[in-house]
TrEMBL record:
Name listed for the protein in its UniProt record: FXYD domain-containing ion transport regulator
Organism listed in the record: Salarias fasciatus (Jewelled blenny)
Top-level taxon in the UniProt lineage: Eukaryota
Keyword Heme: no
Pfam families linked: ATP1G1_PLM_MAT8
GO molecular function terms attached to this record: ion channel regulator activity
Transmembrane residue ranges: 20-41
Amino acid sequence: VLISSGTEIDYDKDFYYHTLRVGGLVFAGVIVFLSFFLLAGKELKNCGKSKKVRRPAWLSELRK
């Protein structure tokens, strides 16, 4: 496509920019989603379950 001044516009460049932008946003969203589950995974796994209290071995021997 030629503009009146004689320079040519490359529409593929805009398409590649848009594709790179959308791909970057999707990649960032996936990273945020995975990091949320990595950080909160243990709490989500035990949600609603009673938590077991672990006592150190030395404490149980003192009570004997």
